[in-house]
Amino acid sequence: MNPDFSDQGYRLFGSYIGQNADGTVGWSLGVTHQSNPTHFISRELKTNQFQVSRDANGVIYPSDNPRQGVVSREFERTSVAGALQFEPNDDLQLTLDAFYTDTTDSGIFRGTETPIASWSGASFDGAQGSGPFADSATYSAVVPILRTDTEGNEAEIFALGANLEYALTDRLSIELDYGYSTLDRNDIDYESYAGTGAARSGAQDTLTFTFPESGRYSIASQLDYTDPGTVLLTDPGGWGQVGFIKEPIIEDELSQLRAELAYDLDGGFISTVAVGWIYSDRAKTFDSNEGFIRASSAFTNGALAIPADAIVGSTDTGGLGMDIIAYDPSRFFEDGTYVFEKATFDTEWNVDEKIHNIYAIADIDAMLGSVPLRGNVGLKYVRTEQSSVGTIGGGLTNDITEKYNNWLPSANLSFEVADDTYVKVAFAQSITRARLDQLAANQNINANPLSCTDTDGDQVPDTVIGFNPPSLVCFNLSGGNPALRPYESTSYDISFEKYFSRGTALAVALFHKDLSNWVIDFNQTIDLEQQIINAGFGSILTGAPELATGAFSGPVNFADGKITGIEATLRVDFIDLTEALDGFGGSFSFTYADAEVDDQNGDSLPIPGYSENVWSGDIFYEKNGFQTKLSARHRSGFLSEVQNFDGSLSGADARSETILDAQIGYTFEDVDGVLNGLGFQFEIFNLTNEPFVTQNDLFDASGNEIGNFASRHELYGRTFNFTIKK
Predict the structure, then answer these.
(1) Which residues contact 669 (CB under 8 A, 6 or more apart)?
(2) Distance CA 183, CA 204 (A)
(3) Is the pTM of this model over 0.85?
(4) What whole-number distance in Å separates Cα of residue 269 and Cα of residue 367?
(5) What is the widest separation between alpha-carbon atoms in the chain?
(6) What letter does residue 480 receive in the DSSP assignment?
(7) How far is 121 from 38, CA to CA, in rounded Å?
(8) Low-confidence residues of the chain: pLDDT under 70
(9) What does DSSP assign to residue 90?
(10) Looking at the DSSP assignment, which residues form a beta bridge with residue 701?
(11) What is the pLDDT of residue 413?
(12) Res 396: pLDDT
């Protein structure tokens, strides 16, 4: 899709495992190196109700700023993993392991923003079709903004661990485990703009969009945007910049220590009891490092010809249309083409998390009458201390610490009600921390002049005019929320499992989860005393402490919800049906899930990532060295989370999708010489070239829903893998 990125890659794997002569010391070493290409066509039509308009016949057409183009990426990774194990006798085992990986994920987006809204200066010439959404539409006086966005990151991960198991007596054992990992990552998002002239001063275009229901729209243009005589480095939108750059630096460090004592009761209803303690300490820092790219003195009238030696060709957008010139902007800072201006709104924060887990668990291995019973029951106490340091007000430090406790019981029981037939029940309470960026203490605080005012001009409010929360408060806070509690869930599961043979089994499970403390973005009245003091406004609280009650806008623990469903899985070895099908097999599964949370108005919202219906299946043949398999997986529509311009996530309704994969291979078996064990495998992923598509609801002039239309359409194509293994 982009001429400076390949469509071919490779993966290399190698491993070695060995031990000494008497089997007391063992070791392993594994190395992988891979280079994986990705190319896809991205269409973002923008069709929510605030981004569309209606013509005189009521036909709906886009009227905002569609963004489209092609993305090419190359992911390179080298990883090394090793382990050393010492077991001098049956009572002692010591294991040391380490892991290192170095990754480079380089990519580029080349495409266009096509402002077609009235505010852009473009004109809507007319739409064709009977609706509700136009079949096509034409716009004139359009000034496309050509985007070349260099996107990628470099990261290193290092981890090491040590595990000691020691039998103190025949029935009492201890286990100690330590783990440490660190991540250092440098990202880049480097935007370079081009067009026909600065601030709409160059040639303008007439664009005709064609809108199939699938969302795979196309654009016909009048200008050639692959021509370096037409396209210049410039600020076509009149934004005051010819680019923008973000170079986030991320550091993440985690240490964990676990100690456990286990006692074998040597029979009885409870077979083993164990008590343990887990301590984890995690610290993550983030610095966005943002800056504007300004035109240098080399620009004339806000524009500069693209240097000839920076041009690498043109894009290939397939059926999208609007191919554009491809240039490499990587040296534009060094050679003086661009001037960097540091942004004043950098985002910097760190989050620290210290968690103590104390747990007890009892394993059950007994007879309940004539029914074998196995399983465990447990209880965990979790003590969490989370703190975050960010900025507030005019760059002042905002340091906030929160502590909380959770008790988490669990039980898992398996009853063998007949030969190879099991009924399993489970119960558990669990917690899941919110995203670390949601916990960040980067916050903005503003004083409401209708409630309190600054009379002496020192930028600190000192006089109360009125105060009547929640409708009238002095301080408004927005941003992250270091006081967030984790998501909570209580799970109930029951399943039936029947094993007919080694290769044939049936399992059916019912599940239900009660969800609470769900995090949503919401406006809430809370105590802002700490933030008011951190921002330097604390003096007003001396005479009016009630002003600490203020309004917060951002992520809060508000919603409750549930997930209820059923899952069925069938695995079949076809030889159990007839000898003629020896070597054939298959597996099939289906899941239905009703997943929703209630928002602030009591209305039900879907949970991101959950489809109501999911099924998968594969048919395979494995015999005499041959392996073939055809796999399919389907999910109905779901609420996806897509990345916004600023890197945040927002919900989007994704359409259903069905992915089909295929593979065929052969391994030499029971032959003499070097061929023995040599195998070949050929795989095709996404055989039918299924796209990822999101949609928005459409409304008539009275606000009634009348259907939907695609908004985002991403076409990833097929991936072919050929593997040789020995």
Answers:
(1) 624, 625, 676, 677
(2) 47
(3) yes
(4) 8
(5) 94
(6) -
(7) 36
(8) 394, 643-649
(9) T
(10) none
(11) 98
(12) 87
